[in-house]
Amino acid sequence: MNINLRTFAVALAGFCAFVDFYAPQALLPLLTQVFQISEGEASLTISATTGAVALAAPLVGLFADTLGRKRVIVSAILALTVPTLLAATASNLPELLGWRFLQGLAISGITAVTIAYITEEWAEAGVGSVMSIYVAGNVIGGFVGRFVSGLAAAYLGWRWAFIALGLLNLAGGLAVWRWLPGSRRFVRQKSVLASVHAITAHLRNPRLIAAYAAGFNALFAFVAAFTYVSFYLAAPPFRLGPVALGSIFCVYLVGILVTPVVGHWIDRFGYRLAFAVAALSGCLGILLTLGASLWLVLVGLTLFATGMFVCQSAATSYVGSAAGYARSSAAGLYLAFYYTGGSAGAMVPGLFWQLGGWQTCVALIVTVQLLTAGLVLRFWQKQRPS
User: Fold this and answer.
1) pTM, to two decimals
2) Which of 73-77, 166-170, 369-373 is predicted with the least confidence, judged by mean pLDDT?
3) Buried b (16+ CB within 10 A) or exposed e, 30-57
4) Where are the alpha helices (DSSP H) in 180-248?
């Protein structure tokens, strides 16, 4: 199997992980009406999944360091199909949250192990570039999930959104099973206990601790922005419906063009500078959404999303470099912090929304992004990646 097909399979795994992840964001205003719930309660459909990934990712990393990479990745994608389809049967919010939680457990097996696969298989050169292609797969999956959800909800009902997503998971899992080659550089840990010892070593590594904190803050800002902007755009003066809200996430598509290019910059100039510049660009973008015109909001969201995709590429690549060994465990820990930040990003801004709407949410997001940029500049290593 040639390198191009292998890289495509990695991107497809990233697609499968994110096609479900944030898909309900396009449905949030509709779900508040269907289940008669508040904006904060509707946002739990996002935090249920991110919270599950945060809980499960370290455990998945432990077992993937002993079982191997491809086996876990393919099994997780196919397993994701089941709760996705069953989410369409939910008759109330608690049931929907339960299926969303199970989706998160499956997604953790895709994200944590694919990161480890990339850092091992491309260890000699080009980790930043391939990680950016993986993130581009995340970008496409994130857009398709939201767009399909909005389209299905508008014409067939919200339940059909989950049916469509489940079928995409099934097709994607079979394709990854066929096209992703087995690991060539995987070093099996002797036992799960050895992986536990590796985790304790990772938690004593200050470079990794700084990366974990940066991941928490980055996803906090990202989820906060794209969860509560749906409520902002559904209200006057914009009054966007489900299809239009799903289409808003076309801003993600810019990331498909940007992240592979930036991957070469990461390899050339280093993780630290790329992350800091991208975080500051995100601040500018989210501030632009305060404008009264829809086109200015779209420009701002495009700049913000692109900055976050670059942050994700730089941080995930840096984790593999900083860990050195037992990379699934290190990636699992990173994802635990990363998606804990995502859970907080879905819930905490709800308090700010009640205080002052979108304006106070923007102030919170900018503050978190500035803190993140300062943290990275202070603690990440200055030298270029190998």
Assistant:
1) 0.75
2) 369-373
3) bbbebbebebbebbbbbbbbbbbbbbbb
4) 192-202, 206-234, 242-248
